[in-house]
Amino acid sequence: MLKIGLPKGSLQESTFELFRKAGFNVSAGSRSYFPTIDDESIEVMLIRAQEIPRYVEEGILDGGITGRDWILENKVEVIEVADLVYGKQGLRPVRWVLAVHNDSKIRSIEDLEGKHIATELVEVTKEYLKSHKINAQVEFSWGATEVKPPKLVDAIVELTETGSSLRANNLRIIDEVLKSTTKLIVNKEAWQNKEKRVQVENLSILLKGALNAFEKVGLKMNAHKDNLDKVLEILPALKNPTISKLSEGNWFAIETILDEKVVRKIIPQLKRAGAEGIIEYPLNKVIY
Q1: Which of 114, 152, 240, 264 pairs as cysteine with 148 (C-beta 3.0–4.6 A)?
Q2: What is the value of pTM for the model shown?
């Protein structure tokens, strides 16, 4: 039995969706910490991403999905099996940034000397300040970090994907402290176990394949030989399509995988160029 910790909270739904596309049905009630999964060889538990690295290192869990930020914050030694670039709002790394109130006189890292900083990422922030030779007080924030400047603290180090929440709270970014992506991790003991290692490697392949398929679709169509070149010119040059001759000698079938945003722009162009029987279909996994 492979014991895996999945992040409860902001990453929970996107993680469930990733597992679904990878071929696993994971479901949990609103107050349940033990989701069901349709694989008898895997046991899943929902835990805050902040805690997963520690439980994995200690062997309470074989592995888990967590962020690089929490691996560094907990100062643990674990095996990073896969880099899974996804977040709550999209397929991009998240950033921990140093921010102050718009009215603050703080303009650079040097201005933080002797100041007061609140963050959930205490150890990483301390290392960041140390690397810049800045002495400042760093306190753990239990929440609502963005509302604390300037009355409670001088600055914060906070997680952001788009920066919209910071702007909404009249905060401006001074510097980037850390860029983080989601990781599939295991402990050394599980990695050295032949059966569990194969399980984890299989899971890694499927999850990465599912991520590759996000925001992509398959596209197939037919084209007469007289229109083939015109149709192929519209398809992105870096995405080499599969072309096969149909039983009717003058017709060809074309199939390719493209970004969904690209497809919605080029389908009308393909139609005008003579493509027929155009079919767009969703993808679950793309394994490179």
Answers
A1: 152
A2: 0.87
Q: What is the pLDDT of residue 89?
A: 64
Handedness of CA 276, 280, 285, 288 (dihedral sign): positive
Assess contact for 206 and 22: CB atoms under 8 A. Answer: yes
What does the alpha-carbon distance between residue 203 and residue 43 come to, in Å, rounded to a whole number? 13
Architecture of the domain made up of 216-282: 2-Layer Sandwich (3.30)
CATH number of the domain at 2-91+182-213, please?
Answer: 3.40.190.10
Query: Among 148, 144, 109, 116, which residue's Cα sits nearest to residue 130?
Result: 109
244: Cβ contacts below 8 Å, ≥ 6 apart: 252, 253
| Beta bridge partner(s), residue 140 | 119
Q: Is the pLDDT of residue 238 over 70?
A: no
Q: Six-digit token pair at 220?
A: 């197939």
Which CATH number does 94-179 carry? 3.40.190.10
On the 0-12 / 13-18 / 19+ scale of CB atoms within 10 A, 195 is exposed
Q: How far apart are CA 44 and CA 26, in angstroms?
A: 9
Q: State the DSSP H helix or E strand holding residue 44, giving kind and residue range, or none if neither.
A: strand 42-48
> 155-175 in b/e burial notation, b at 16+ Cβ within 10 A?
bbbbbbeeeeebeebebbebe
Q: What is the dihedral of CA 4, 10, 16, 22, to 10 degrees?
A: -80
Structure-block tokens of residue 68 = 């690089």
